[in-house]
Amino acid sequence: MTHPKIYIDGEHGTTGLQIRDRLANRTDINLLSMPHEERRNPNAREALLNEADFAILCLPDDASREAGRMVSGGNTRLIDASTAHRTDPTWVFGFKELDPGHDRIIAKARFVSNPGCYSTGAIALIRPLAKSGILSKDALVTINAVSGYTGGGKNLIAQMEDDTREDAISAPHFLYATGLTHKHVPEITTYGLLEQAPLFSPSVGRFPQGMIVQVPLHMASLGATSLEDLHDCLSEHYAGCEHVRLASLEESASVTRLDATALAGQDTMDLHVFGNGNQVNLVALLDNLGKGASGACVQALDLMLAG
């Protein structure tokens, strides 16, 4: 029996290594790998991309676009973990819980763009409310988030873990993107069904993996009268989803402290509706390298393999 050939282009980066770990022991696929001596050979890379049935791109944006051009005349199906194609209408957005039935669209797609880690949490919270009309599409939305430092790739990992470096970071927690621009904002705006870009304030904590994404809202600004209305909207949207869990209102009400690392090492996401009669805080909890990156890539791959 011939198994599908899978090539991870950029397998030695943070995301690529995590994907390879998830696929290494599977017997239903054939993992291809570039020989070490050929890794800077563009012809060898192009040949391997076109030999593969599926290629997962764990690359900078320009290199991902180049890979797309390299397979344009062939049949290789791509999953792109970069930012390059996330708002490209010719690529299918890889968040399988985007809408009921979106998993079937991913299964049939040739080109799939994996969502970013922050945007996975933000879109999961915002889109169902915007789609239902509870949240106006012209709403002014604020998103606050903290991620494990592995989301910054090898350089940030080294800065956080090696205190002998001149550029070592000693802070236990730091804010960044202070100019209020971030590469995830376009996809959050597009797939959150927002007409105006949200105000997004991300930060990094001194822990490797984990993430909390928060969307605080005033009830007076929403087309809903209670936390139950919001919870019901999210519950309907994610009914039957394997990898997204909506906590009950009772569970969320009992939470006094939420640990950003609680789902580290897992490929699932928890959603919470916190609040009182006047305010609500919608919260997503996930692993930035799991459901926020490598885990989501593998979930998309499994859909495409089955489709």
Topology:
Elements: E1 5-9, H1 14-23, E2 30-32, H2 42-51, E3 54-57, H3 61-70, E4 77-80, E5 92-93, H4 102-108, E6 111-113, H5 117-132, E7 142-148, H6 153-161, E8 173-175, H7 185-191, E9 199-205, E10 211-218, H8 227-237, E11 244-246, H9 249-253, E12 269-275, E13 279-286, H10 290-306
Parallel strand pairs: 1-2, 1-3, 3-4, 4-6, 5-6, 7-9, 11-12
Antiparallel strand pairs: 7-10, 8-9, 10-13, 12-13
Helix pairs in contact: 1-10, 4-10, 5-7, 5-8
Overall helicity: 25-40%
Architecture (CATH level 2) name of the largest domain: 2-Layer Sandwich
Backbone shape? globular
Task: Briefly note the structural class of the backbone.
Answer: alpha/beta
Number of domains: 2
CATH superfamily of the largest domain: Dihydrodipicolinate Reductase, domain 2
Instruction: Give the helices and strands as they follow along the chain.
Output: EHEHEHEEHEHEHEHEEHEHEEH
Strand content: 15-25%
Number of helices: 10
Rounded to an integer in angstroms, the radius of gyration calculated over CA atoms is: 20 Å
Low-confidence stretches: none
Mean pLDDT: 95
The count of DSSP E runs of length 2 or more, i.e. the number of strands, is 13
The level-1 CATH class of the largest domain: Alpha Beta
CATH topology of the largest domain: Dihydrodipicolinate Reductase, domain 2
Main sheet: which strands, in order across?
8-9-7-10-13-12-11
How widely separated are the two ends? 18 Å
Q: Mind summarizing the main beta sheet?
A: 7 strands, mixed
